[in-house]
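step 3/5: co-fold with zinc ion
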Amino acid sequence: MTSPSSYPTINGQRLWSNIIETAQYGATPKGGLTRLTLGAEDIQARNWFRERCEALGCQVSVDQLGNMFALKPGRNAALQPIAIGSHLDTQPTGGRFDGILGVLAGLEALQTLQDQQIETTAPLLLINWTNEEGSRFAPAMLCSGVYAGVFDRDYAYSRTDRAGITFEQALRDSGYMGSDPIGKQRFAAMFELHIEQGPILEDRDIPIGVVQGAQAVRWYEVTLEGRRAHTGTTPMHLRKNALLGASRVVELVNAIALDHGPLAVGTVGLMEVRPNSRNVIPGTVFFCVDLRHPEDAVLAQMEAAFTSRLHGICSDIGLTHDLQTVWDSPAVKFNANCVAAVREGARAAGLETLDITSGAGHDAVYVARVAPTTMIFVKSVDGLSHNEAEYTAPEDCIAGAQVLLNAVLAYDAAHH
Ligand SMILES: [Zn+2]
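step 4/5: write tokens
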């Protein structure tokens, strides 16, 4: 790939100061953040973001979902911009880095280019996506989802919080109901820097995760039916114990994940036993199964193993079963050119990388449906996230931000 002649060094101290400064908007006593979508603290963070972008000479536009787009001109205004995006909202007791790092690192990238009077060929676009967390208004990634055509606008508007306020009303009240039609602001590609929210980079002591995509997920609901009977009077060979069947399925799900390589995961996380009485043989058990793998084909093999062995377990014990697939989300593969730009960015920064797959949802996962997209991960201490103790060390934030800027410059040089 064609690389830029040199890469400017970001101001890491300024990036860290901005993380600390904006952490006042929704600060909790335990060092985390409560910054729910379009609440007072989110509005403060948005106002800060808008002022900083405008001070850099960016034009800030807002669409009908409150998504904020700060445009920094390039040499060729006819080109679609290269975007950097993430989110400024948090969980009710969230951390200071989830989403926020991606937006503030993007701001630092624009500021560095401004300081060093470096102009890109394509314009650059810094995006704050509304309601990524989905805490106040479910589902998560609501507004990048509408942008990408996953949900429609009126569905988003109809979402209500626990006080009965609709998303549309909250947008109007916040002053962030913009006039731009959704999708008006197009872009050529998007890069998202995010904390890993898992333990892998820390465990391997590697600073940069080159995210390949997001894993495929399937959720199932299973009901096993046996026969309720007295635990004292029913001999073992005449029982139809649904919980015995369920416990074998718990082992089965674990074994299937272990059998399909280090990237497969499988969990039974919820179970209801009926009648749930100490001296009644359980007649009915309801439980949920969660299977995930980065490859659709491997997930299909895991599902085939699960359904065939589920039949065997039930027939051995004399149970009947009902199996429903309640969620089927295919794997997402990030764009090869964007991934190559991230590799080049890390190489130029002299940082070791690990190829990694996202285990969580992100704005980039939806955006990837409509534009070339990828992500960069940095370490999360103890893999903790959605937690006030969430932490990423300054050197890791700075490393991620440097790779983000380098990747954008590499993409611009290679494609224009
Ligand atoms: Zn996030």
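step 5/5: annotate
The chain has two domains: 12-214+331-415, 216-329.
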